[in-house]
Design brief:
Layout lengths: L5 H17 L5 H27 L5 H25 L1
Helix pairs in contact: 2-3
Length: about 80
């Protein structure tokens, strides 16, 4: 079994993190698709949370907050992707 060189392993993933923060990894098309899917899931969670509040369920506020945070996060990512173009 091959020995793991921790220094090389750390360097590899630090470079990957730098590429991700620059918007060059994954490519912009994949990042845009991912944000679209995330935004759709966030909207679904918002609708479920609002419906849950009207039905007085226990977890409705948590679902509503999760949906709002997901939508805001993906909108920020969309703006970041457009700015990199």
């Amino acid at each position: 079994m091959k020995q793991l060189d921790i220094k090389q392993h750390t360097k590899k993933y630090m470079n990957l993190a730098k590429k991700a923060s620059n918007g060059s990894y994954p490519n912009q098309k994949i990042a845009k698709i991912g944000s679209t899917v995330g935004l759709g899931i966030g909207c679904i969670l918002l609708v479920i949370g609002i419906f849950g509040i009207t039905q007085n369920t226990v977890f409705s506020v948590g679902i509503l907050i999760a949906g709002a945070v997901t939508c805001v996060s993906n909108c920020i990512n969309f703006k970041r992707i457009k700015r990199k173009n």
